[in-house]
Each structure stands twice: as structure tokens, then as C-alpha cells.
Amino acid sequence: MKMDTIAIEPFKIVTEGLKEVGGGTYRLCYQCGRCETVCPWNRVRSFFVRRMNNQAQIGLVPFESEDLWLCTTCESCMERCPRGVLTISNMVAMRRLLLPDGVVPASIPSLRTATTNIASVGNPWGLRQEERAQWAFGLEIKEFDENTEFLYFPGCYLSYDPRLKKVAQATAKILKKAGVDFGILGPKESCCGESIRKTGNEILFKRIARENIKVFIDSGVKKIITSSPHCYHTFKNEYPEFKMNFDVIHISELLFELIKEGRLRVNREFEKRVAYHDPCYLGRHNGIYEEPRGILKKAGIQLIELPEMRDESLCCGMGGGRIWMETKKEERFSNIRIKQVMEIEAEVLATFCPYCITAFEDSRLVMGLRDKLEVKDVTEILEEVI
Ligand code: SF4
Ligand code: SF4
What we know:
The protein is an alpha/beta fold. The chain contains 16 helices and eight strands. It has a four-stranded parallel β-sheet with strand order 2-1-3-4. One iron/sulfur cluster binds next to helix 2 and helix 3.
């Protein structure tokens, strides 16, 4: 791979610049290479995190290289780094340095489109804001107001994507069955901004976050249920930077509680063998491993574990803004994951993330497994058995 590196500014400006935008820990790297042994990119191509750290230490940024845009922010490397190098922050910082000057490789034009659409109409596809609540048509879901206990925030994929609308619908049906008092914002809902922040676009992220927080406050929101671990992560861990704290709950946490309290009763069997995939932003980033497995087990599901699971889960390849960038067919981590699923002879791959589902659905079709393997959100499975 072409790896032209030039100093975009004199040494001090680059190193100070990286530090100012949140990426100073590359300095701690002592080149042991442990990060590279776990980075999923090294399963499909060469990707040298330590070399990038080394270059940053001498004031170089891989200016035109696509490598800067590869990191999926999966956090695998940070779990193993003996020096506490915050690789995700460093990668995002390098992107932040380059993005204001429009330095984005020509190979990722789809990122520009998604960014422009989110900035203009609040979703990555440029679809009409009024269509945002069409997934809820006929389900009699109320609009959130200050007397409603929970705001359900489906996010962009579950609102607009035909495959993932089914997950929002299953979620709403379950919540209604359990008697949960919830509402939606409908056309007032907008992209959470998580993926855009990871592409380095801090200005847009801050604007989105402030606008969302204003809508939440004006509507009287206190408790937010999310389906996407990415919305969950940013509302819970990043929005507090704006001095606002909402009670943020991932749907897996709430469903597990509802089952334990007896508010959801299982009365049908699901006979297929299910493998559970831990999404990076639910597992490694937020430590939610037990609740999804607890739901599946209490629902009487025959759960079989994948070889790389929990904190060692294999990234689907879509985090860090990669969802808006093209990945070559032969370089998709999701293909590797699907092979693992087939090796343990599961019939359903279950997860709890719209990005993972999108990647796995695509791999399943490309690999000719349409009739052999289903990909489902855990919510969809639960809805079938209650
Ligand atoms: S594991 Fe940490 S210290 Fe070792 S090369 Fe990677 S970033 Fe550097
Ligand atoms: S966060 Fe994940 S994709 Fe990024 S460098 Fe680390 S291991 Fe690789």
C-alpha cells in the first residue's frame, strides 16, 4: 500500500496540533507491536499502528494515505496496549487535523455524501425528515411529551433502512406488550452524530449534539432508550461533555430487566441454533456482555458461542465512520465472522447493532448463504417468542 508521508507542518506544529485535538498519547508508544497482532485489519491487509505512532512522534502524518481512515475504532488494540496508548483518540485526532483542509482521500467519496446529508437534513441518505417515523405507521406509538417516561430513539438506520425498520417495529411491539410508557420524537429526531465524530468532523458533531440536546430538553426528555450501541455510546459517554446528563439505557438492558421482572413472558419456542456477536460499541466500549446473553437464555434459545467473543469479539468493520466508506469485498471483516458462524453450525447470527446487521446481511448474501443463515437483532428473536 502506498504510504507517502510528509510533514504537513513543521514538527512542533504537528505534534502540538495532535495534542490539542485530543491525540497526544502516541508519544507513549514504545513500538512493541501488540496492537498489530489484534488489529482486525491485519487479517485482510497490512496496517501498522505502531509505524503511524512512530511517524507522529517525529512530526509526520501519513498525509494522503488511506490508512488514516481505516481504523474502525474497535478498541481491540487499546485493551492490549501495555503503555496506555489511546489509539482511537490518536486516529481521530489525525483525521481532525486533516479534515478542515479537505484532506480526504478520493477513495472515500461516500463519506462526503453522508456528511453533507447529515449536516443538511439530519440523516446520512438525504431522506426527508418527515419520513423518519414512517416505520411506526399503524403501531399506534405516541409522540413523546414531558409526561412520557421513556424516549425511544431508534436512530437513522432503524428509522429509514427497510431491513432495519423491522427492528424498530419489533422493539416497539415488545415495549407495548410489557406496558412500558414510551414515545418517539418522529420528525424532530436527528442523527446522533457518533459516526461523524469518529471521522474527525468535530465541528459538525458539536452542532448535532447541541441541537439534539436542545430538542431533548425542550421535549422534557429524562430517560432515553436506544437500539444502536453507537447512539447509546455518544449519548451516555460523549454528550455529557456538553454538561447534560440523560439516563441512557440500551434496549438490551431494559429487555433483560423486563424479562426478570416477569413483564415479558416467553410462550413460544425458537428452535434454531443461535450465535451471538458482541458489537464493539456495546461490548468493549460499554461492557454490556451479560444482558444480550441473558435475554437469549431466558427466552429458551439454544445459544452457541463464537470463537472470538465478549472482549475479544471480532469487529464487523463498520465503526469509526467506516459505515460511510467503501470496503473492498476481500477486506471485509464481516466475511470472516460469517465463516466463523458457519463453522460452529449456527443457523442464526444474532446481534444488537444496526451497523453489524448491515455488514452481516451483506456478507451473507455475497457469500451465497441466503438459505443457510439468518441475521437477526436479538429484539426480533424475542418478539417471535413472547
Ligand atoms: S501496543 Fe501500544 S506500545 Fe505497543 S506498539 Fe501498539 S500502541 Fe505502541
Ligand atoms: S481500534 Fe481497532 S481498527 Fe483501530 S487500530 Fe485499534 S485494533 Fe485496529
